[in-house]
Amino acid sequence: MTAALEVKNLHASVADQPILKGIDLLVKQGEVHALMGPNGSGKSTLAFTLAGHPAYETTAGQVIFDGEDLLEMEADERSRAGLFLAFQYPAAVPGVTLAKFLRQTINSRMQAKDPDSKGISIPAFRRFLTEKMNLLGIDPKFAGRYLNEGFSGGEKKRVEILQMATVEPKIAIMDETDSGLDIDALRIVSEGANRLHKELNMGVLIITHYQRILDYVKPDHVHIMFDGRIVESGGPELALKLEEEGYDWIRAKYGVAEEA
Amino acid sequence: MSNFTKDAVQKLSAFLNEPEWMLEFRLKAFEVYENTLMPTIKEEAWRRTNLRQMKFNEFGPSINGDAATDSEIPSFLGEQLTEDKVGGNLLQIDGVTQQYEISDELTAQGVIFCDMHTAVSQHPDLVKKYFMTEGVKVTEGKFAALHGAFWRGGTFLYVPRNVRADAPLHTVLWSVNGRTFTHTLVVLETGAEAIFMDEYASADGDAQGLHNGVIELLVGDNANLVYAGLQDFGQNVWQFNHERGRVGRDGKLDWVTSIMGTRLTKAFQTLELDQPGSWGRMSGIFFTNGRQHLDMDTEQNHNAADTVSDLLYKGALREKSRVVWQGMIKALPDSQRIDGFQANRNLMLDQTARADSIPGLEIEADDVRCTHASAIGKLDEEEIFYLMSRGIPRETAVEMSVQGFFDPLMRRIPFEGIRTRIFDRIVEKIG
Ligand SMILES: Nc1ncnc2c1ncn2[C@@H]1O[C@H](COP(=O)(O)OP(=O)(O)OP(=O)(O)O)[C@@H](O)[C@H]1O
Ligand SMILES: [Mg+2]
Fold first, then answer.
1. CA atoms within 13 A on the CB side of A40
2. CA distances from B383 to A77, B187, B428 (A)
3. Which residues, in sequence order, are CB contacts of B225 under 8 Å at separation 6+?
4. Residue B129: how many CB atoms within 10 A of its CB?
């Protein structure tokens, strides 16, 4: 059975401020969706709410993931259930090396299934990590560095994809993974996402402002978010239209006049 | 009535079969002890540490070590002795040696590594020259004097000129009777090098215990010492320590302190950079919980030009524990071009804990670079969420975050086995 992420009339607030005002969205395993929309429209808020960030409070609506009530789960359970979020601005974790962190993500999964599990052996993990890092063109030296500490913007994004490749999610949300990447990195990261999409039938929700990542990871559906709602959904042509025309027509159609 | 009497000094010295000069040393120290008042919060150095709840009259000297046996040592300490490649092992209970070994290589090199009492009888000239003369002096305070009179057990490490000790050395000082007065004396001659792990521990007990220790680290010209003092006493122990490191021309002292245990610790730790090119680094790792009270007074004394000191003390605090760190960097008028740094960072895991950070500078030279920083922080919830968002349960995420906080300092402890043990202890304390 393929898993799906089903968002129904989702309302969420941050600091008592309503941001999401009724989101409906269905992303199935194997599908690629793009979510676009002007700055501040609530795209990252949707991503954080789905990932279970404690600062984001759901005030109405429902989210079903792989047949289960996602909103009832803690952030770590959501991840283990197969939902992944590649962060727009990943946090640094000083003192915890990338290798130690990745190994723990694997071990936590093994231990959730079997509390007595000793986790992945060090040699097996080393082999696994070397292979994944090679594929994503990440210097092996990064394994010994503290997670995201002093990483450049592009390095952080690659490492987000490395994490995605490590935990092999059913559905991944990629929040502006393309921003800050140079042209080669964009290709490598996109190939990484495509590979998981093809090999694991991973579903993808790509949050982006630009067409260029969509040239690599081709969306089946494109959605436009505006003021906390998805106001338009369509095929790939919708992204091209935005690239051409910007958001003025969306504002004219759905919004109040832009503040002077 | 105190059990610390002149008669007790004589009994202890006689029990140990000490030479006359050591008895005299003890008696002189006892005189200083008798003429010094018990510190109170009216004294600046003790302003934040109140001894009212200490039952001092229930304490007493450890004369015969109360015949403890090594079967009472938790097995993990014993295991540690064989884990890494160590050149010398010393295991004591209440100051009485239970296990001792030193490699043939070290002996051939002329390295002396033995318990302090053996040093008194076999290396009297060295002990006379260095014991509480250049490092800590009995006149430094009530507890320095008490130690001078009643010291019992501890380690003597001597590395001759231009000898690089073939392997690290390791001492474990375990306490059963809750009365320990251990003395660590390390002497590195010109160009000598050594790594020494010095561990202090005991199980929790009901009655109050006392640890009254002195640590003296004398690093000669061009010599290089890595010293880690790792304390994990039960939370019934009251600890009063005087510690001093002295570094000669172009010498290096890398000094790590880890404090996990005791009900109360008051430690004076002083680094003396005596000659141009002296370098000293002080690293502090501590974790307090319950009602633990930890008060550290550190001094970085730049007694010569072109000296470098670097202090970083990091602690995590839980429940109603309290930590005081008071640091001072001093530079004499001629100590130009020195570089002094001190920083204290505390991670408050509960709001009920309290930390005071009091950095200070007394700089009489003008061409210097001295900086200090102190910071109090909480767990970073964004960091925890990030870890959890990868499937790591909250409990594990918190452990990783706290371990990460300590990691840069933990890397300065040269033994994997000891690092792991401290990490485990930290995890246990997170609860
Ligand atoms: N923690 C917060 N506290 C207060 N306001 C917040 C918080 N997080 C988000 N917001 C507000 O919610 C709104 C939506 O923000 P969000 O980050 O979801 O936008 P976005 O669509 O991802 O924008 P961008 O394209 O710039 O990344 C913004 O007005 C933002 O200021
Ligand atoms: Mg965003």
1. 2
2. 17, 45, 21
3. B186, B188, B193, B194, B195, B196, B217, B219, B245, B251, B252, B253, B254, B255
4. 12
* Distant-in-sequence, close-in-space partners of A103: CB < 8 Å, separation ≥ 6: A119, A120, A125
Indicate whether residue A89 lines ligand 1 (CB < 6 A): no
Q: Cα–Cα distance between A73 and A79 in angstroms, integer?
A: 10
The pLDDT tens digits of the residues spanning B60-69 come to 998 876 656 6
Which pLDDT value is given to residue B70?
59
A208 CB less than 6 Å from ligand 1? Answer: no
Is residue B222's pLDDT more than 80?
A: yes
Q: How far is CA A176 from the centre of its chain?
A: 8
* Whether B379 contacts chain A with CB within 8 A: no
- Residue contact A146–B401, C-beta within 8 A: no
Partner residues linked to B310 by β-bridges? B281, B341
Q: Pick from B151, B33, B143: which is nearest to B94 by CA?
A: B151
Q: How far apart are CA B36 and CA B50, in angstroms?
A: 17
Domain ranges of chain A: 4-90+171-254
Token code pair at residue A213:
């990542």
Residue A231 contacts residue A254 (beta carbons within 8 Å): yes
- What distance in Å separates the CA atoms of residue A189 and residue A213, rounded to the nearest whole number? 9
CA B333/CA B325 separation, integer angstroms = 26
Q: Is the pLDDT of residue B205 over 90?
A: no
Q: Which 8-state DSSP code applies to residue A71?
A: G
Would you give the end-to-end CA distance of chain A in angstroms? Answer: 51
Model pLDDT, residue A260: 39
Position B421 confidence tier, pLDDT thresholds 50, 70, 90: confident
| Unique residue bearing structure tokens 């030479």 | B19
Residue whose Cα lies nearest atom 16 of ligand 1: it is A42
Tell me which of A260 and B255 has the higher pLDDT.
B255
C-alpha A196/C-alpha A171 separation (Å) is: 10
pLDDT, tens digit, 9 for 90 and up, residues A70-106: 999 999 999 999 999 999 999 999 999 999 999 999 9
Nearest CA in chain B to A81: B391
pLDDT above 80: residue B193: yes
DSSP-based three-state secondary structure for B368: coil
How far apart CA B301 and CA B325 sit, in angstroms, is 17
- Distance from C-alpha of B214 to C-alpha of B224, rounded to nearest angstrom: 21
The ipTM assigned to this model is 0.96
User: Rounded to whole angstroms, how far apart are CA atoms B126 and B160?
Assistant: 11
Contact at CB, A93 and B383, closer than 8 angstroms: yes
Residue B150 contacts residue B9 (beta carbons within 8 Å): yes
| DSSP three-state, residue A149 | coil
What's domain A4-90+171-254's architecture? 3-Layer(aba) Sandwich (3.40)
pLDDT of residue B84: 62
Judging contacts by C-beta atoms under 8 Å, the chain B residues touching residue A92 are: 383
CA distance B340 to A182: 42
**Nearest to B209, CA basis, from B258, B173, B262:** B262
| C-alpha B357 chain-centroid distance | 19
Inter-chain CB pairs, A–B, below 8 Å: 83
